[in-house]
Amino acid sequence: MDEPTDARALEPDHWVERHGGYLYRYAIGRVRRPDAAEDVVQQTLLAALAARERFTGGCSERTWLTAILKRKAIDWLRAAARREARTEALPDDGTEAHFSRSGKWARPPGEWSAADPGRELASAEFRAVLARCLAKLPDRLRRAFVLRHIDEESADFVGNELGATATNVWVMLHRARLRLWRCVSANWFGDTDGAPDEGHDR
After folding, report:
1. How far is residue 44's CA from residue 32's CA, in Å, rounded to a whole number?
2. pLDDT at 178 over 50
3. Count of CB atoms within 10 A of residue 134's CB?
4. Residue 67 has what pLDDT?
5. Cys-Cys crosslink for 201: which of 93, 137, 144, 185, Cβ 3.0 to 4.6 Å?
6. What is the DSSP letter of 52?
7. pLDDT tens profile 114-152
8. Which CATH number fits domain 95-189: 1.10.10.10, 3.30.300.30, 3.30.420.10, 1.20.1260.10?
9. What is the residue-wise DSSP string for 14-32?
């Protein structure tokens, strides 16, 4: 675990060497484009350089840079969303029948419903499969899922970031969950028989 960094001990000359690779991997996991990830990391380092006098030393240098990077990645996602249609047409494909209004599965996958639902997340192999499945999502669905379920932002925040209505956010999240279920079921559990049909959303 990174130790807190003394406020006087920041070393901007070594940021790229010490943290560049980590920050790039974090950024590309959010924006999914190498060129955009490079831009976000560069913006992060410039912002950190400008704000270094305000660093209080309450966390490690890497943690501080990552917090700035997270904000820059969200800014990039917001700008990208503004370039898209404010209200993307999302036709009814029947996927809503597989979820309750609160977003829970109407019929949970058996393998995922065991007594310890978090046991698979402890597996590096499972995390790798999940990351590959997440990368296969359409960009807009992936953004919604990452913001809501990985960054743990509110549904209202997701809607504002993506320029989507509350209904569209709900549908996008359902579609993302459905696609992830199908992908993980096939690539981890080796079972697609119980996965609901995606209908027109292929």
Report:
1. 17
2. yes
3. 21
4. 92
5. 93
6. G
7. 445 455 555 667 777 778 888 888 888 888 888 888 888
8. 1.10.10.10
9. GHHHHHHHHHHHHHHHHH-
